[in-house]
């Protein structure tokens, strides 16, 4: 292994070679999304300065914004105290992090009044059919 990426050895990868990642917006500190990275994704993220994740469903690297144009410019990469969660401080280019056309993926809020339920509290800013190439 190259000593260039020796810093990756500090991460505690799970049994699938993945680590959970939180993307947080620089400035507002909004939590935009949660995803996964493998070693290659984290190394590419550091190299490019843009978020690259591991898509578990597609089983391949996923450069955030490759289809939508809504890239995440990485300002900082941090790890937690246990070395098993990565935090990306990002600028969300285009303002939309969620594939639903919202600013954040965390738009459902739990309401515990009357009958408990989830309610969408953030608006769709751009319809998904206008974001993604067919």
Quaternary structure of the protein: single chain
CATH superfamily of the domain at 17-95: Phosphoribosyl-AMP cyclohydrolase
Number of strands: 8
Tally of individual helices: 1
* CATH class assignment of the domain at 17-95: Alpha Beta
What would you call the shape? globular
Topology:
Layout: E1 19-25, E2 31-37, H1 39-48, E3 52-55, E4 60-63, E5 72-79, E6 86-92, E7 108-111, E8 117-120
Parallel strand pairs: 1-6
Antiparallel strand pairs: 1-2, 3-4, 5-6, 7-8
Task: Explain what this protein looks like in three dimensions.
By secondary structure, the chain is mainly beta. The chain has a domain at 17-95: Ubiquitin-like (UB roll). It is 7% helix and 34% strand. The chain has a 4-stranded mixed β-sheet, with helices on one face. A two-stranded antiparallel ribbon has the order 3-4. Strands 7-8 form a two-stranded antiparallel ribbon. The longest helix has 10 residues, at 39-48. It is globular. 22% of the residues are buried. The model has no long low-confidence stretch (mean pLDDT 94).
């Amino acid at each position: 292994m190259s000593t260039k990426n020796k810093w990756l050895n500090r991460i505690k990868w799970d049994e699938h070679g993945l680590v959970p990642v939180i993307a947080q917006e620089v400035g507002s500190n909004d939590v935009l999304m949660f995803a996964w990275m493998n070693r290659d994704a984290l190394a590419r993220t550091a190299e490019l300065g843009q978020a690259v994740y591991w898509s578990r469903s597609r089983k391949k690297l996923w450069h955030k914004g490759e289809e939508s144009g809504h890239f995440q410019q990485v300002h900082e990469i941090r790890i937690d105290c246990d070395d098993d969660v990565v935090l990306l401080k990002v600028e969300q280019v285009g303002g939309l992090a969620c594939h639903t056309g919202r600013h954040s993926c965390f738009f459902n809020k739990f309401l515990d009044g009357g009958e408990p339920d989830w309610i969408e509290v953030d608006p769709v800013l751009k319809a998904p059919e206008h974001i993604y190439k067919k």
